[in-house]
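Narrative progress, year one. The postdoctoral researcher (J.K.) led the effort to move from monomer predictions toward full complexes, under supervision of the PI. The following entry was the first complex the group processed end to end, covering 527 residues in total.
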Amino acid sequence: MEALLSQLPIGLSIAAVLMLVALGLTFTFGQMGVINMAHGEFMMAGAYTAYVLQDWTGREAVLAALPVAFAVAGAMGLVLERAAVRRFYGRPLDTLLLTWGVSLVLQQLARDIFGAPNVQVRAPGWLDGGVRMFGSQLPYTRLFIIVLAAVSALAIWAYQNRTRQGRRMRSVMQNRQLAACSGIDTGRVDQLTFFIGSGLAGVAGVALTLIGPIGPNLGTYYIVDAFLVVVAGGLGRLRGAVIAALALGLLDSYAEFWTDASLAKVIGFAAIVVFLQARPQGLFVLRSRALT
Amino acid sequence: MAEVMLEVSGLQAAYGRSQVLFGVDLTVRPGELVTVMGRNGVGKTTLLNSIMGLLPPTAGTVTFDGTDVTRARTFQRVRSGMGYVPQGHETFPQLTVWENLQVTLEATGRTDRTAVDDALEVFPRLTGLLKRRAGFLSGGQQQQLAIARALVTRPRLLILDEPTEGVQPSIIREIEEAIEGLHRDRGLAVLLVEQYFDLALRLADAFVILDGGAVRHSGTAADLHTDEVKNLLAV
């Protein structure tokens, strides 16, 4: 029992990382249907933002980088949307190729600017150490990521359901033509949605600096997991993405506990394949007369 | 002759390579109800979508209140006073009835709620449904919401595409009365696509009959009773 519980904090922290990397995708992929392969590189940009800020802020870089990385990655997303993605709406395969190309370019760009070797961002001093939970040590950095994931998810929920912009975004995603017929500038809503989704990738990138070194390939390690979470959760469903991230994170930690790291990965993928066979639409499906 | 509110001239439109409209002319004067008639597949819905900019026309012009809006985006046309109720009781299905109206009100940039109150006055049935999700309403209720949503944009010209299609008979009556009231009592100009000959007969000041993507026949209410018109509309 003790051993079983000891995996809980580890599972939660894996889940929090999954949640953070997937939250941005609930906007760009879930709401807009854009398969943005460069999403991972926006995370990388967020991580390097923290690295660059380190020169000025020292060990407090992580905190300072959160808003800056949001703006940097968001701006990159905005440029991508304006320059290219908007010309490919409704053509998912073309978008996939396009953004994959962009992701390769961004990786090379990072290599040219920061060099190929991994770099390190030092965590703030107040995140040194950890807390003992259920017989296992949970570093404060992991706890910080868990809190950050929870706060981000709550903020997104509030944005979508409690603000004018959020309501406008939902209306465009539910019925684009009718939104235009209601006087909504759908292009502007697309821009804002893409900006927020990409900005969240930047925030996730900052969080990733707390759990390991960062390099030009950072995004490629997380992009598949991020898409899996969003698909398993049900497209565009925030609640689904949160629960899917929790389930996958816990499954991963327990599978690794009983087997080993690579087998845990296999078990995770297998579980998703089986799950999607049973529920191709994901955990939560939009239901209404209009869609039946 | 009164000034012209909506003037469509030589409008052509196509879906990809298949052309649907071959030069349509049409005018709506302030306070007038004009009905567009024709069999299925003659381009009625395409015409309305082109007028609203949802399907950019390939040739011709659309002028509203003396301004050329042919290249304007749909939301700009809506904000300039063209209200549109597309075919098939369209709503934002996951938003509540209240949110459907509220999001429209916000998009128009106004802050006072009178536009919403006025729309609910036209369709009092909706008042009791404000907290329900639009997707769970019946077809007739959804259509009432669809028209109410368009009214919230405070249109000076209301464009309706088959507003009574697929609606239960009890609500058809309410919708017809609402359109009649908006037109007669509030002097709202209306451009109406409608299959039901009776409704058109009762309300229209002028009519246009489309066939094969072009205007086959047009005239005022008095001309509606001719045999030629009846032949053109016979299915």
